[in-house]
Write a structure and sequence with these properties.
mainly alpha
């Protein structure tokens, strides 16, 4: 009788453990989804200056006049530029 109870307990634990882990994973996914939805609502998008720069870049790409640059060229080794948008991206 005691062995039968231990067997049932092991079966219940074996069924509940994956269920618990799956539900925990689902809760995290739902929480991340709603956090991302909230971020999308609060994000204002691009500024006018950024939109102008993006539109100009798209025109250059569409016209086929985009010059390729070799990042390993020796002439550009010491060259460095900073973004105009204050996001501290260097490139």
């Amino acid at each position: 009788m005691r062995l039968k109870i231990v067997g049932y307990l092991l079966m219940i634990v074996g069924l509940l453990l994956p269920l618990l882990l799956f539900s925990n994973m689902t809760v995290h996914e739902v929480r991340d989804f709603f956090a991302y939805q909230g971020y999308k609502k609060t994000e204002s998008g691009f500024s006018k200056k950024e939109e102008e720069v993006l539109e100009h870049y798209q025109e250059v790409v569409r016209s086929g006049q985009l010059a390729t640059v070799d990042p390993f060229a020796e002439t550009r080794k010491d060259e460095q530029s900073v973004s105009d948008f204050g996001d501290t991206i260097i490139g």
